Amino acid sequence: MSKLGQKAELAASILTIVAAVLLIGVIVQKYFFSTTAVNQKARMQPDIGSKLNVSDVNFSSQPKTLVLALQTGCHFCNESASFYKRIIENTQNKNVKLIAVLPTSIEKSKAHLNELGLTNLEVRRSPLDSIQVSGTPTTLILMNEKGEITDYWVGKLPSDKETEVINKLNS
User: Could you tell me the fold of the domain covering 46-170?
Assistant: First the structure.
């Protein structure tokens, strides 16, 4: 092989190694050191004071609104059904609007909620990310006619947090 051929082969080998190292670096950075996924999760948490965007809801009809962000296949949502029943019982004849927001059709959502024994809830269909929710169940309390978020809880709540939610609704 000529000297020129050997130099060309050496240059090609070096370029291949450099390209492979760069590719590995990009993959490692993207999958192991990426903050994009973390930042997206952080953005998906409800912001206290922000207005909740749920279509066809009149927040001014009651001074407080409780929004339950649920999904039909969420076992934590199903396990929390007894808590949601307590909320319904404790807020009857009080100035609290109760809304369940699910990403499935209203008919399917109502059927699922009825199976859980949850009635007396307004049901709305909305993608959960449009209401700043990335995980279910999420419980949101809104105050005033603008529908501004004042408190929220994510996940299946322990009994002390359940009591906190009910107390805030009744205060």
Answer: Glutaredoxin (3.40.30)
